[in-house]
Write a structure and sequence with these properties.
Layout: H1 2-36, E1 38-40, E2 43-45, H2 47-51, H3 63-73, H4 76-83, H5 95-118, H6 124-153, E3 171-177, H7 185-198, E4 202-206, H8 228-240, E5 244-248, H9 256-259, E6 268-270, E7 273-277, H10 282-298, H11 310-315, E8 322-324, H12 344-362, E9 367-371, H13 380-386, E10 392-397, H14 409-418, E11 422-429, H15 441-458, E12 466-473, H16 487-503, H17 515-518, H18 551-577, H19 583-588, H20 593-621, H21 627-656
Parallel strand pairs: 3-4, 3-12, 4-5, 8-9, 9-10, 10-11, 11-12
Antiparallel strand pairs: 1-2, 6-7
Helix pairs in contact: 4-5, 7-8, 10-12, 15-16, 18-20, 18-21, 20-21
Length: 681
C-alpha cells in the first residue's frame, strides 16, 4: 500500500519537473530569436532594436540598414504598397512612421472587419432590404399616428387611405347648384379663390332657370336670374384662377323649370307632370338644341366677344372642354302614346345618343358627361349596342357611406367594358335631408374618403382611368322642393371634403391642412385635443369662431337650428307628454288655467327669441342673397315654427277664459258617429 503511494508521488513530481523545463526552454528560445536572429554583414542585429525604431542615440543601425533588413523580413514591401505604389512618387516616410502605420492599419482593418460582420450588410440587396425596412417602419409610424388622430376627431379609418397612399384624383370639381338660393356674383367671386386654395381644379355650374336665356327660351329665365355681364365676371374670375368651368344643362329628366310653363307643356312625357321630356317628339330635340347652343356659345370666348374687351378675350384662352347633360332620375319614361310601345332602356339610350350627337357635330372638341344612375341596371350588351360608350363619360354618383351597396363590382366591370373613362361624385351638402340647415360634415367626409378608396381600387379597370371627383352641393332636391342647406352654412363641409379630395386623405396636421387658414379660423390653442372634431354637434366649437365669407350666416344658422330644436321639443312636450294642453283639452275646452300659465312660460321665451331672429334674418342674409331668397328662406324655415308658437299662445289664452266646467263624463265628438261610436254604445 505504501509503495503504491510513493510511486504515484514520484510520477507527479517528474511530470511537474518536465513541464517546468519545457517552459524555460521556450522562454530562452524566444529571447534568442527576438534579440540575435538577424545578421547583417556578420553583425548580429536585434529584431527588437529594429522594431522599436533604433534611430535613437543608442542605436547601432542606420536607416538604410533597417530598411534593407525589413525588406528581407517581408515587412517593407507591404508598407511601400501603402505609402506609394504604381509609380506615383511620394515623400519617403521614415521606418518608424511605416511601422506605426502598419500597426494602425492592422487594428483599423480588424475593427472594420468586426464592424462589417456585426452591422454592415454584405450585398446591395441587403442594403436595399434594410432601407426598405426602415421606410416601412417610418410609414407605419406615420399611419398609426394618422389613425390615432382620426379617431380623436371622429373621422372613420379607411383601409388604404393615409399619408402614404395613392395620389389624389386628377380633377376636383365643386358643384354649384343655382336653382335655389342663388348667391350674389360678388360672393361667388370671393369663394373661388378659397376653392382654389383648397385644391379645386374646376366648377360644375348648374344654372337651371338662373341662366339668361333669350329668344324663344326667354320665358324659362327666372325673374331674378343672372345677367350675362354678371356671369362673364364669374368666367373671368375662374379662368384667372386656373379653374375650368363645366356647365350642367338637364336634357331629359329634372326639366321642371321648363315643363312647368304653359309655353312648354306640349313637350312633357306625362301630361300632368313636368318632370321629364318626351324624347319621341321632334320639337323636344329642337328645344334642346336651342338651349344647348345658348349655354355653350356663352361659355366660348369667341362667341362671347360682344360682352368682353379685347384683353378679356385674351385672358379667356381656355376652351370649354366639357358639358354635363344631366339625364339622371328620369322617372317618367315610355308612358306617352308615342313612347309606351318602346323599351325604356332603349328609349333612354337613344335619346342620350341623339343629344350627344348634336353636341359632337356642332362642337366636336367638347366632351360630354352624364349621370350614371339610369345605366346601372342595363346589361353590358345593351350599352355596347347603343354606341354611347364612344360619346359620353358617366359620372357615377353615390352620397351614402357604403358606395359598393349601390355600385357593385359587376357594375364597375360593365362600365369599364363600355366606357374608356368615367367620373365619380360625392357630396358636401344637400344629400342627407331636404330641410337641413347645417350639413353633417362627418358623413360627407366619410363619403369622400370612401370614394377615394373606391377610385384607387376601380380606376385601373378603365383604359383611360377615372377623370376625377365632383363634390356636389345640391340646393334643392328638385325644382319644387324647399331649400336645402345654404352655401355659407356648408362652406366648412366643403373645405373639409375638398382639402381631403385634393390630398387623397384627410390631413390631420393643422399646419399643413389648409382648412383653418382658408376659412380664417383661429389656430388650435392646445395639442391635447383634436384641432377639429367631427363628432355630433362638436363642429359648433370649431367653425363658429371662423371668419370666412358668409360666416355670419353660418352662426345665424347655428342659432336658428338650436332655437328650432328647442321649440319643437317644447311643443311636443306640451301637446303630447304633459296633461293640460293636449288636443283633447283643447277640443273640450277642459283644463286648469294655472297649469296653462305654467306651461306657456317657456312658449313666451321661445316666441320672443325666434321673433327677434326672424327680424334679423333679412339683414343677415343680405350680404350673400337677394331679398327674394331671404323671403323664401324666412317663410320656409322660421315662419312655421313662429306660427305654431303663436297658435299655442292663443289656445292657452282661450282656455284660461273659462271659469266653470261641466260634470264628467265629457261628451263624445261628433266625428265619432261616422265610426259607429256614439254616447249610447
Amino acid at each position: 500500500m505504501h509503495s503504491r503511494l510513493l510511486t504515484l508521488f514520484w510520477r507527479r513530481k517528474l511530470l511537474l519537473l518536465a513541464s517546468s523545463a519545457l517552459f524555460l526552454l521556450a522562454l530562452w528560445f524566444w529571447g534568442f530569436l527576438y534579440t540575435t536572429h538577424v545578421n547583417d554583414g556578420g553583425k548580429i542585429v536585434s529584431i527588437k532594436e529594429l522594431m522599436m525604431g533604433g534611430g535613437g542615440s543608442g542605436s547601432s543601425l542606420s536607416g538604410a540598414h533597417r530598411e534593407n533588413l525589413l525588406q528581407r523580413l517581408g515587412f517593407y514591401d507591404e508598407l511601400l504598397d501603402e505609402t506609394g505604389a504604381g509609380g506615383v512618387k511620394f515623400v519617403k516616410p521614415t521606418v518608424e512612421g511605416l511601422l506605426a502605420r502598419s500597426r494602425a492599419k492592422f487594428f483599423n482593418e480588424w475593427e472594420a472587419i468586426m464592424q462589417d460582420r456585426d452591422e454592415k450588410p454584405h450585398s446591395a440587396r441587403e442594403i436595399n432590404k434594410r432601407r426598405s425596412t426602415e421606410e416601412l417602419r417610418i410609414a407605419a409610424e406615420k399611419q398609426n399616428h394618422y389613425e390615432h388622430e382620426l379617431k380623436k376627431m371622429g373621422v372613420p379609418v379607411i383601409a388604404g387611405i393615409g399619408p402614404g397612399g395613392h395620389p389624389p384624383p386628377l380633377q376636383r370639381l365643386v358643384h354649384l347648384d343655382l336653382k335655389g338660393a342663388p348667391p350674389k356674383i360678388a360672393y361667388l367671386k370671393r369663394l373661388m379663390p378659397i376653392m382654389k386654395t383648397l385644391g379645386a381644379t374646376g366648377i360644375l355650374l348648374e344654372y337651371e332657370d338662373m341662366f339668361p336665356y333669350g329668344g324663344p327660351l326667354s320665358p324659362i329665365t327666372a325673374r331674378n336670374a343672372y345677367q350675362k355681364e354678371e356671369l362673364t365676371e364669374i368666367l373671368k374670375t375662374a379662368f384667372a384662377l386656373g379653374l375650368t368651368v363645366i356647365p350642367l344643362v338637364q336634357t331629359f329628366g329634372h326639366l321642371e323649370f321648363v315643363l312647368k310653363l304653359q309655353e312648354f307643356t306640349h313637350l312633357r312625357e306625362v301630361e300632368d307632370s313636368p318632370q321629364a321630356l318626351c324624347p319621341s317628339k321632334n320639337a323636344s330635340m329642337v328645344f334642346l338644341e336651342e338651349m344647348l347652343e345658348q349655354v355653350i356659345d356663352f361659355h366660348t370666348p369667341a362667341k362671347n366677344i360682344n360682352l368682353l374687351r379685347k384683353e378679356d378675350v385674351e385672358k379667356l384662352t381656355p376652351k370649354l372642354t366639357h358639358i354635363h347633360i344631366g339625364c339622371d332620375e328620369v322617372y317618367q319614361i315610355a308612358q306617352c302614346s308615342r313612347c309606351k310601345n318602346r323599351l325604356k332602356d332603349q328609349l333612354f339610350l337613344d335619346h342620350v345618343y341623339n343629344v350627344a350627337s348634336i353636341i359632337r357635330k356642332k362642337w366636336p372638341h367638347i366632351k360630354i358627361i352624364i349621370w350614371d344612375d339610369m345605366l346601372r341596371h342595363m346589361p353590358v350588351e345593351t350599352l355596347q349596342a347603343s354606341g354611347i360608350g364612344k360619346l359620353v363619360e358617366p359620372m357615377i354618383w353615390v352620397y351614402a357611406e357604403d358606395i359598393y351597396k349601390f355600385i357593385q363590382s359587376s357594375t364597375w366591370d360593365k362600365y369599364s367594358i363600355v366606357f374608356n373613362t368615367a367620373w365619380a361624385a360625392s357630396a358636401f351638402k344637400g344629400a342627407h335631408g331636404e330641410t337641413l340647415l347645417i350639413p353633417p360634415i362627418r358623413r360627407h367626409l366619410e363619403n369622400t374618403l370612401r370614394w377615394l378608396a373606391v377610385m384607387q381600387g376601380e380606376g385601373s379597370r378603365f383604359p383611360d382611368g377615372l377623370q376625377g371627383l365632383a363634390l356636389t352641393g345640391w340646393q334643392r332636391y328638385d325644382h319644387f322642393a324647399v331649400l336645402c342647406e345654404m352655401l355659407p352654412s356648408a362652406l366648412p363641409s366643403l373645405a373639409v371634403c375638398l382639402s381631403t379630395a385634393s390630398r387623397g386623405y384627410f390631413d390631420v396636421n393643422p399646419k399643413t391642412n389648409p382648412i383653418l387658414s382658408s376659412l380664417t379660423c383661429p389656430e388650435p390653442t392646445s395639442d391635447r385635443h383634436a384641432w377639429i372634431e367631427l363628432h355630433k354637434d362638436s363642429i359648433l366649437s370649431t367653425f363658429s369662431r371662423c371668419m370666412f365669407p358668409g360666416s355670419v350666416i353660418y352662426r345665424f344658422m347655428l342659432r336658428l337650428m338650436t332655437l328650432i330644436n328647442e321649440a319643437k321639443e317644447y311643443i311636443d312636450d306640451v301637446k303630447q307628454k304633459r296633461g293640460w294642453l293636449t288636443d283633447y283639452n283643447v277640443r273640450h275646452n277642459f283644463t286648469s288655467g294655472t297649469r296653462v300659465d305654467d306651461l306657456l312660460g317657456e312658449d313666451y321665451r321661445l316666441l320672443n327669441s325666434i321673433t327677434n331672429l326672424a327680424r334679423n334674418a333679412a339683414s343677415t342674409l343680405a350680404d350673400v342673397y337677394d331679398h327674394w331668397t331671404s323671403g323664401e328662406f324666412i317663410e320656409q324655415r322660421i315662419y312655421p315654427i313662429l306660427a305654431e308658437l303663436k297658435h299655442l299662445e292663443r289656445i292657452g289664452d282661450d282656455l284660461k277664459k273659462r271659469k266653470t266646467w261641466p260634470q264628467r263624463p265629457l261628451p263624445y265628438l261628433k266625428p265619432f258617429e261616422a265610426l259607429g261610436i256614439d254616447e249610447k254604445t
